[in-house]
Amino acid sequence: MAYAPTRKRGMARLESYGTDMYAAIAALNRALGVLTASPQWIMGSLLGNINFAAWLGVLFDALLARKDSILRATGYDRVREVGETVKGAAATYARMSAEEKMRKGMEFIRKFTEIRAKISEILGPVKEVLEAMKAAAGV
Questions:
Q1: Contact present, 22 and 14 (Cβ < 8 Å)
Q2: pTM, full prediction
Q3: Alpha-carbon dihedral of residues 117, 54, 38, 17, nearest 10 degrees?
Q4: Contact present, 108 and 120 (Cβ < 8 Å)
Q5: 18 torsion bin: left (phi>0), alpha (psi -120 to 50), beta (else)
Q6: Does residue 22 lie within any of the structural domains?
Q7: Contacts of 88 (CB under 8 A, 6+ apart)
Q8: DSSP-based three-state secondary structure for 28
Q9: Rounded CA gap, 99 and 51, in Å?
Q10: In 10 A of CB 89, how many CB atoms?
Q11: Is 11 a member of any domain?
């Protein structure tokens, strides 16, 4: 049996209320509550993203620092090495101040953006060649 979603979204949800105006008014109030709280939500979301980027930066640095021992290990030893590394990275992240987290997060985002730009720069000519090959093949 195919999966059929049971909850409607958006206007279809409002229209499904029919004559039940109280439910429609409640749905509208929830939507307005989200809109009025959005400036705080946006700031929290931005700070959350920066903190997440800081955590990824700390984790990647820790994994890269121990990459040789992790790659040499096999089986359960590798799992233990990775677990110890993540535990150490979590302790390092917990000791960081808010300013350090902000700096680390911005640094990670900057590096990630640079890497993405370099990859797209490298893949640009490859995409052109693939498009030319498709055009020549008539696909």
A1: no
A2: 0.56
A3: 90
A4: no
A5: left
A6: no
A7: 62
A8: helix
A9: 10
A10: 21
A11: no
CB 55 within 8 A of CB 28: no
Q: Which domain holds residue 116?
A: 50-137
> Which whole-number Å values give the CA distances from 27 to 12, 24, 34, 39, 104, in the listed order?
12, 5, 11, 21, 40
pLDDT at 136: 86
Residues across the chain: 139
In order along its 139 residues, the chain shows pLDDT tens digits of: 455 555 666 556 555 555 565 666 666 666 666 556 666 666 666 678 888 899 989 999 999 999 899 889 888 999 999 999 999 999 999 999 999 999 999 999 898 888 888 887 887 777 788 888 888 887 6
Q: How far is CA 131 from CA 19, 20, 28, 87, 118, in A?
A: 55, 55, 48, 46, 20
Let me know if residue 13 belongs to a domain.
no
Number of domains in the chain: 1
The sign one gets for the Cα dihedral 123, 129, 135, 139 is negative
**Residue 133 resides in a domain:** yes
Judge contact between 69 and 107, C-beta under 8 A: no
